[in-house]
Amino acid sequence: MSCLFCRIINGEIPSKKAFENENIYAFYDIAPQAPVHILVIPKMHIESVDGITSENSRIVAEIFENVPKIAKEAGIENGYRVISNCGDDACQSVHHLHFHILGGAQLSDKMA
Ligand code: AMP
């Protein structure tokens, strides 16, 4: 299996877990861009936001249903940003759908 995040889900590559249930895994980014930087991913392989369909979109709702809890349990108290990079112009580097949760400090008012 070549997908990095699928290998993390399977435990082949170590990660620092922030949250897990049957369908979702959340873990700390290896190169944090904020004091708290967590990635939330579906356990099913979806390439990116472009791969979300009416058949699999329930997992996206489930991710967002859990984001506030993940942020709170990670100690984020004063707001956070959720980002998903999709495709080359957005610099998506891992082609398994993921949502960055960034927080723990005042973030830039610029998003790009
Ligand atoms: P993106 O650039 O939006 O595709 O985000 C991919 C993210 O995965 C980057 O923020 C990387 O730092 C992060 N990343 C890459 N490899 C690992 C890893 N082994 N463990 C945790 N985070 C990783």
CATH H level: which superfamily? HIT-like
Number of E-type strands: 5
Order of helices and strands: HEEEHEE
Query: Shape, please?
Result: globular
Low-confidence stretches: none
CATH topology (fold) name: HIT family, subunit A
Strand content: 15-25%
- Bound chemical compounds: adenosine monophosphate
- Radius of gyration, in Å, reads 13 Å
Q: Compute the number of helices.
A: 2
Strand order of the largest sheet: 1-2-3-5-4
Distance between the termini: 33 Å
The CATH class designation is Alpha Beta
* Total count of domains: 1
How helix-rich are the residues, as a percent range? Answer: 10-25%
CATH architecture: 2-Layer Sandwich
Mean pLDDT: 97
Main sheet, how many strands, which sense, barrel? Answer: 5 strands, antiparallel
Q: Give the helix/strand class.
A: alpha+beta
Name some characteristics of this structure.
22% strand; five-stranded antiparallel sheet; alpha+beta; 112 residues; 20% helix; binds adenosine monophosphate
What does this structure look like?
The model has no long low-confidence stretch (mean pLDDT 97). The protein has helices at residues 4-9, 58-73, and strands spanning 17-20, 24-28, 36-42, 80-83, 99-103. By secondary structure, it is α+β, with helices and mostly antiparallel strands. The termini are far apart. It has a five-stranded antiparallel β-sheet with strand order 1-2-3-5-4, covered by helices on one side. The chain has a single domain (4-103), classed as HIT-like (HIT family, subunit A), CATH 3.30.428. Adenosine monophosphate binds at residues 4, 13, 15, 29-31, 39, 85, 91-94.
